[in-house]
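Field: COMPLEX_INPUT
Field: COMPONENT_COUNT = two
Field: RESIDUE_TOTAL = 225
Field: MODE = joint
Values follow.
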Amino acid sequence: ILNVEQSPQSLHVQEGDSTNFTCSFPSSNFYALHWYRWETAKSPEALFVMTLNGDEKKKGRISATLNTKEGYSYLYIKGSQPEDSATYLCAFINNFNKFYFGSGTKLNVKP
Amino acid sequence: DAGVIQSPRHEVTEMGQEVTLRCKPISGHNSLFWYRQTMMRGLELLIYFNNNVPIDDSGMPEDRFSAKMPNASFSTLKIQPSEPRDSAVYFCASTPTGARYEQYFGPGTRLTVT
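Field: COMPLEX_OUTPUT
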């Protein structure tokens, strides 16, 4: 069984706080890692696709890093806003094109 | 571009009936993915196509499920016969090519089997 784990499961922060969460995945047969933002009752929205060890990607106040050798990726949100409230989901894709999703980190940003 | 289009948006059917879900990927995208979201199992990949060819269907739950992509602009996911445990939101997503590109998700089809 291949595990993709995300922590924490949920997070409550105040507006303006910076926060980060983790996606852990197997360090072997790595092909790509995806991060998604998923608001309740909407479709997942792609944030980042990361493919190389050491990758760092940024989109506005959100950034992500990737360490394929140790099998983790961090997602950072700087200065959280209420509109950042969503579930952040990661997916590990291996060399056999198999997708494995984590269970997500649910972020709630209080005004 | 209109994005990924799915139909119907909602489907309510009785157990035993055939259900067909439809997806139109973004024009020019060569890869198409079908997902299922349930409370118990979260988001699961059911099958994905590259250039209309199924690449991985290991996520398809059982023989009652089948998916086709007869051309680059259309795919169907069929459940026959449907069961109450098939109730879920089914998403379709497309990418330019393969798993190293961002996936664009459709709005989903909420299926309820009574």
